[in-house]
């Protein structure tokens, strides 16, 4: 519908990324319903403050002691995205899943290289537990980089010996910064996601130390971390996208670790296709499957 703009990555990186952010159009593809209720809350844990937004549609009074809460972690390659660009999607998910959504406004790269976004997500989760919200009330959902971030956050929770959420849902998760899956070659002509020079992109994500850091480091690439102790997991990916093998390989690893994992692949579908539920039935069908799965965990 809208071809991706071409950016000159030889120019000042932050200037280029600010231009990308200005042209990011998710809110025009999935507009926010006028009656959707969005309220900001600043969560703080151990001196670490993070912005978040409660999203409820239809509007209702949020009961933190009883509502199921879905932490939503947005995509944008760790570079783009905020509550403004994803509020339409999150409002619709609140309606479809009959859940309160908590949008995590994690810090973006390159101003805040990884793992800053992981630290933000874990801080919000710990703050929720500190508010006496039960892990059984909490689920985490993320798409693309947000899916990778959701997985990294749960791995961090397990490493800190904290209770895990009820379940995790990831759409086309970015699990391997080294991009070693064969689908990065196989599907490069059918994938619609932006094409960046890999070295330039990793420099934005990892900062000045990127040369010394390994892209298969489990602090950044959850595919190479442990899935032992993971909660119920729903993985969705399309067969026409570069990150197909990110999900397929993770599915295999999670099964071997004994995780209760559901894998759904959209035939001929491209990157994060369930987000486009306003446009085609395959996306609606997958979101319906996810909604049914939520009721079973």
Quaternary structure classification: single chain
Beta-strand content estimate? 15-25%
If helices are DSSP runs of H or I spanning 4 or more residues, what is the number of helices? 9
Structural category is alpha/beta
CATH class: Alpha Beta
Spatial ordering of strands, largest sheet: 1-2-4-3-5-6-7-8
CATH superfamily: Alpha/Beta hydrolase fold, catalytic domain
Order of helices and strands: HHEEEHEHEHEHHEHEH
- Could you give the distance between the termini? 37 Å
Number of domains: 1
Q: Per CATH, what is the topology?
A: Rossmann fold
- Nearest-integer average pLDDT: 94
Helix content: 25-40%
Largest sheet: 8 strands, mixed
Question: Can you walk me through this structure?
Answer:
It is globular and about 50 Å long. The chain has helices spanning 13-23, 26-29, 83-97, 116-130, 145-159, 183-186, 198-206, 244-256, 281-296; strands spanning 37-45, 48-56, 69-73, 100-104, 138-143, 167-171, 232-238, 261-266. α4 (116-130) packs across α5 (145-159). The protein has an eight-stranded mixed sheet, sandwiched between helices. It is built from nine helices and eight strands. The protein has a single domain, classed as 3-Layer(aba) Sandwich (Rossmann fold). The termini are far apart. The protein is an alpha/beta fold and 297 residues long.
Keywords:
9 helices, 297 residues, 8-stranded mixed beta sheet, alpha/beta, Rossmann fold, globular
């Amino acid at each position: 519908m809208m071809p991706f703009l071409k950016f000159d990555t030889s120019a000042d990186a932050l200037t280029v990324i600010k231009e990308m952010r200005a042209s990011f159009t998710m809110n025009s593809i999935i507009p926010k319903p006028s009656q959707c209720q969005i309220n900001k809350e600043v969560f703080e844990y151990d001196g670490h403050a993070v912005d978040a937004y409660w999203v409820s549609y239809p509007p209702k009074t949020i009961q933190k002691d009883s509502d199921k809460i879905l932490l939503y972690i947005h995509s944008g390659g760790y570079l783009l995205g905020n509550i403004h660009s994803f509020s339409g999607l999150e409002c619709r998910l609140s309606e479809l899943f009959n859940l309160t959504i908590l949008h995590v406004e994690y810090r973006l790269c390159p101003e805040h290289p990884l793992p800053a976004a992981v630290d933000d997500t874990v801080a919000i989760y710990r703050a929720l537990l500190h508010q006496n919200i039960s892990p059984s009330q909490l689920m985490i959902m993320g798409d693309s980089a947000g899916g990778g971030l959701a997985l990294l956050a749960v791995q961090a929770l397990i490493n800190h010996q904290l209770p895990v959420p009820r379940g995790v849902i990831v759409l086309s998760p970015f699990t391997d910064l080294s991009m070693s899956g064969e689908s990065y070659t196989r599907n490069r002509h059918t994938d619609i996601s932006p094409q960046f020079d890999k070295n330039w992109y990793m420099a934005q994500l990892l900062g000045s130390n990127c040369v010394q850091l390994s892209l298969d480091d489990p602090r950044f690439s959850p595919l190479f971390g442990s899935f032992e102790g993971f909660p119920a997991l729903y993985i969705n990916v399309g067969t026409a996208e570069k990150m197909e093998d990110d999900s397929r390989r993770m599915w295999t690893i999670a099964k071997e670790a004994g995780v209760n994992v559901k894998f759904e692949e959209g035939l001929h579908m491209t990157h994060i296709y369930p987000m486009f539920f306003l446009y085609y039935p395959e996306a609606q069908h997958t979101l319906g499957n996810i909604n049914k799965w939520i009721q079973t965990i």
